[in-house]
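Re: beginner question about structure tokens

> Can someone show what the tokenized structure looks like for a real chain? I only ever see the sequence side.

Sure, here's an example I had lying around. Input first:
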Amino acid sequence: MEPAPPPCVVLDQPQLAENIGAAARVMANFGLSELRLVRPRDGWPQERAWASASGADWPLDGARVFDSVEEALADRRLVYACTARPRETELPVHTPGEAARALSAAAAQGLPTAYLFGAERAGLETRAVALCNAILTIPVDPRFRSLNLSHAICVAAYEWRLTVLDAPPEAFRDRAPPAEQEAMLGLYGHLEEELEASGFFHPPEKKPAMVRNLRVALNRARLTDQEVRTFRGVITALVKGRGRTLERLARRGGPRA
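And the corresponding structure tokens:
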């Protein structure tokens, strides 16, 4: 199972080479590698960017320059505009964590994704935001909303990285699939029948809630077909054991008081 491809980072009209380098550095920290630049103010490449990247050269080495945001996003399928203000749009507004989960889910389906950031001085323009599918807003303290470009990228990239680290380990990815619902229904019926015979459902009026709780617990376990067969074998063994116990007691004249 290949990991979902990370989103690319698009910088619209970045101003300082040092900020581009710092952006590349935090991208590398959290596994983002594709950097796109839209009309960088001082042109490209700029040596000061590599100096600021502190060795995180690969996002800068592979950076692509575009003449417009439209061109930079043309091949993307899900894009988040990273801005503190909705800027007169009706787009949904998400936290960095919500955005990261949405981007990872889209990438898992093979859809190319992106984060779009604006220039350091004024952020994203409304026309650029309108090209995106949703808005990512970092919940900063309202007393000081100004956030450094690389810091904003760091927050977004960190949240995306968490979605990768929270993915099931390889051992769980290879786990057998959950049992079919038909098999689970058989297990429910088998267990409930024997519990009814043993007098477990008491008082009778509470039986529906007790049955529901048992089914929820079993279903939450995501049992495999083999595990369902094992559980049914356990139930059968317990019933047979109970039967043998009753037979022994009957031969002895019944249980003693």
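Each token stands for a local structural state, so reading them left to right follows the chain. Residues 8-172 form a domain with the Alpha/beta knot fold (CATH 3.40.1280.10).
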